[in-house]
Fold:
Amino acid sequence: MRKASCLIAVFLLCFAALAQPDAVAPEHEKRYYSLLDELRCLVCQNQTIAESDADLAKDLRAEVRKMLQAGATDSEITEFMVSRYGDFVLYRPPVKPRTWLLWFGPLIFLVIALMVLSRLLRKQKKAGSTALTEDEQAKVDSILSRTEE
Amino acid sequence: MSSRLRLFRDVGMSKYLLPVILFFILTSFLFVGLYRDPTEVSSPLVGKPVPQFSLPRLDNSEALFSEREFLGKVSLLNVWASWCVACLEEHPVLSELANRNAIIIYGLNYKDDVTKAHQYLVEHGNPYLANAVDAFGRVGIEWGVYGVPETFVVDKKGVIRYKHIGVVTQQDVEEKLLPLIGQLQSEVL
Structure:
């Protein structure tokens, strides 16, 4: 029995040791994880540095922790990353002239689509109100009577 | 034939032309994208002075290697490690450059074991004038390193002028590095 509890204790200690490197002060925890979610791992580009198991992601996580402990603000930390790795490191690209098309492009397309839609609807409404001419009516009648035969 | 022509006139050419134009715009974007490597992220460090750092040298751990090393000459900084397979691929190319005295090559030995790094240079030859030992990759972060090998071209003022990501091939040397080095060497301090 004692042996078993001893084993469990050792087991738990191992876990504690494993968890240690990524530990962050409780008061920083929330900011830490939200920052990690904003930063791209450049090695495996479709993961954040929170998700990635790459060596560089580990190093960058350590860097974020160190900066948080030193009292850096969120913007100081993202600025640190951007100045070394470029805007690409941010999952949320900054709004600036180069990214205007990216940010506002969808809005432009929406406006164009709405304009086209309204024009089509107006056209349809107009077309719907026009009755068939006598000529056309006669044509329709002849075709319909033919199919009946 | 004539009825078809009338059709065109009636509906207006634009109805047919517009999708064709959109198609060409879309395909030209896709075509350009086809030849771009998403793993090559342009570095914001190009055009900026080399970051400040101070690291022990590989050949003499008592001596320090700092950013001052880069002043007054055009040089390369090659980020490498003995565990890096791709580095071995570019090693002969770097050796060639060094043998031709085309340029001074410094090395940043990235997250490596010092003994293995020494062994690597003994085994494959040493193109580096000096190596800085970045055992924990901390200086690598300062340089924006995210994959080994990476190679930086630094001008006489100690400003980073170019970053090459991945293996440097002979073709890269002829087409990109040598022309740039020639241009930088002709710049006056």
